[in-house]
TrEMBL record:
PANTHER family: GLYCOSYLTRANSFERASE FAMILY 90 PROTEIN, KDEL LYS-ASP-GLU-LEU CONTAINING - RELATED. SMART domains: CAP10 (SM00672). The keyword NADP does not apply. This is O-glucosyltransferase rumi homolog isoform X1. The gene is LOC110413888. InterPro entries: CAP10 (IPR006598), O-Glucosyltr/Glycosyltrsf_90 (IPR051091). It comes from Herrania umbratica. Keywords: Membrane, Transmembrane, Transmembrane helix. The chain crosses the membrane at residues 33-55. The keyword Transmembrane applies. Residues 188-437 form the Glycosyl transferase CAP10 domain. Pfam families: Glyco_transf_90.
Length: 516
């Protein structure tokens, strides 16, 4: 962690703008149950691997879901397990050289495919802008000034060109994630050329590309989007870890939060709404702090400031996400834009009180009010929070059910397999729109897991080792469902809106009666 001082200087420098993305933090453990499940799962995997003969069919781009004939269990091979390719930094002199022992083609063991979850449908919507025009080299050139990374995949290998100063190591962990995707589905990613922005604010505003003489907007990959922007949403870096603030890769982090969540039964949790985060990054957050308990009024909240510099000095002992499942209600409030804290908050089994977000990430558009969270207006935070907590304490079963459903959704949506499948389909659909043949840019350099991870130290390296894909997937990616039908989408949005109006009506009723 020799780089901490530097990172935290970075934090301060960018503090107002960027680190607000994150709001709550905590840490955890919970692996016993998970590892038991994993063991059983793995056992089945081995069993299947032993029974089903491998079919050596390299799958090429454009031939995603080929018709294949299932062979019967005629040739039973025993003890057939997958070879693992862990990070090997032993020949440190050759750190910059990418090893060539990893499989180049994808040989899935299971050839059946399931349809991807519904939230994958947004992939089509996010690429809609370029559906007719396609994506030209000129668009990429014009988008460069908004991007920090240009990533090119040619023949299954990744090349990158960096410009600007990405915050902390967001860029590294994002590249790491894409490298792991290439290891998960070797040889299956098409050639492509894309631009990525790792900051908080959306970059490609719709209003800049309207009117009769408007040019077509450049495609830009980013972690979040909003109604007014065209940024293409992609999973954020924290799925592979946020080393600067000691947040483990998502799989480990989720397992820790689930463990922490088991420590306090729902009924025994503090019957208040909890939030801990850095308020400095947004007006919404500063505003939220006004709802804290004071000698004048009790809004049923417990709000705390997360000072990351101080937390770092203390070794993050008091900022662990897995120790923050102590309240029945947890507040989600956006930072500078979207906040990566959303998934950690939803994972606690507590009912999430969500202050109306303006931004979305790749999965959050499928969250449903009163099913996965309780909606809070940003214009009436304190009153809405107080009512939500009172309601929950008077309808314990319902509040608990909303909390559980939110956590279940996060667990189902955000398995690493789903994350990789989402990335795969997004990149695959994007590549179909390219009007040119991607080539390696002059200044780009080849990157692979070894060149990225072997020169790192401390948590940075640890998280990369933990989140590394050690062998190719044993099955095909899920099958991408078509876009939402416009009517179905409208009905979904209307239903959401109607539910929110219903809650607002209850709120109004509560406060009117309260006053009289
Ligand atoms: C889960 O929580 C228990 C009880 O707090 C703890 O003893 C155990 O180490 C945790 N497991 C993991 C994997 O973090
Ligand atoms: C790591 O790489 C070195 C050099 O290529 C090789 O000799 C060694 O066997 C490898 N170690 C493992 C554990 O694969
Ligand atoms: C909110 O109130 C609690 C209890 O009085 C206090 O411990 C905490 O520091 C307060 N938070 C802020 C942000 O002032
Ligand atoms: C927020 O900003 C104030 C004033 O600039 C500063 O004193 C405080 O330490 C900052 N808090 C955090 C958590 O960054």
């Amino acid at each position: 962690m020799g780089n901490d001082v530097k990172f935290f200087q970075g934090f301060w420098r960018h503090g107002d703008q960027v680190c607000g993305c994150f709001s709550k933090i905590g840490f955890g453990q919970v692996k016993r149950l998970v590892s038991t499940t994993a063991c059983i799962f793995f056992f089945f995997l081995l069993l299947t691997a032993a029974l089903v003969p491998w079919i050596h069919l390299p799958i090429k781009q454009g031939n995603l879901f080929p018709q294949m004939i299932f062979s019967s269990r005629s040739s039973i091979k025993k003890h057939h397990s997958r070879t693992e390719y862990p990070l090997n930094c032993s020949d440190s002199g050759l750190q910059q050289k990418c090893p060539n022992n990893y499989p180049l083609v994808f040989k899935p063991n299971k050839l059946s495919t399931e349809t991807c979850l519904d939230y994958f449908r947004w992939i089509h919507h996010d690429l809609q802008t370029w559906k007719n025009s396609g994506i030209t080299k000129d668009m990429i050139e014009r988008g460069k000034s908004s991007a920090e990374l240009r990533l090119v995949i040619v023949k299954g290998e990744l090349y990158m060109e960096k410009s600007g100063h990405p915050f902390q190591t967001r860029d590294l962990f994002t590249i790491w994630g894409i490298l792991q995707l290439l290891r998960f589905y070797p040889g299956k990613l098409p050639d492509l050329d894309l631009l990525f922005y790792t900051g908080d604010s959306t970059k490609i505003k719709k209003k800049d590309y309207q009117g009769p003489n408007a040019r077509s907007p450049p495609p830009l990959f980013h972690y979040c989007g909003e109604e007014k922007a065209l940024d293409i949403v992609f999973p954020d870096w924290t799925f592979w870890g946020w080393a600067e603030v000691s947040i483990m890769p998502w799989e480990q982090m989720l397992s820790a939060i689930k463990n922490g969540s088991k420590r306090t039964k729902w009924e025994d949790r503090v019957p208040n709404a909890y939030w801990k985060g850095n308020p400095n990054v947004s007006k919404q957050r500063k505003d939220l702090l006004k709802c804290n308990l004071s000698d004048k009024y009790d809004w049923n909240t417990h709000l705390y400031i997360q000072n990351w510099a101080k937390a770092n000095e203390e070794g993050f002992k008091h900022s662990k996400l897995e120790d923050q499942c102590t309240h029945r209600y947890k507040i989600y409030v956006e930072g500078a834009t979207w906040s990566v804290s959303e998934k950690y908050i939803l994972a606690c089994d507590s009912m999430t009180l969500m202050i109306k977000p303006r931004y979305y990430d790749f999965f959050s558009r499928n969250l449903v009010p009163m099913q996965h969270y309780w909606p809070i207006r940003s214009t009436s935070k304190c009153k809405d929070l107080k009512f939500a907590v009172e309601w929950g304490n008077n309808h314990i079963d319902k509040a608990q059910a909303i909390g559980k459903a939110g956590s279940k959704l996060i667990e189902e949506f955000l398995t690493m397999r789903n994350i990789y499948d989402y990335m795969f389909h997004l990149l695959n659909e994007y590549a179909k729109l390219l009007k040119f043949k991607p080539t390696i840019p002059l200044k780009a350099k080849r990157v692979c897991s070894k060149t990225i991870a072997c020169s790192r130290e401390g948590l940075w390296k640890e998280y990369m080792e933990q989140s590394m894909v050690k062998s190719p997937s044993d099955k095909l990616p899920c099958a991408l469902p078509p876009p939402y039908e416009p009517q179905a989408l409208q009905a979904f949005l209307n239903k959401k809106e109607k539910t929110i109006r219903q809650v607002e009506a209850w709120q109004a009723e509560y406060w009117n009666i309260g006053r009289n």
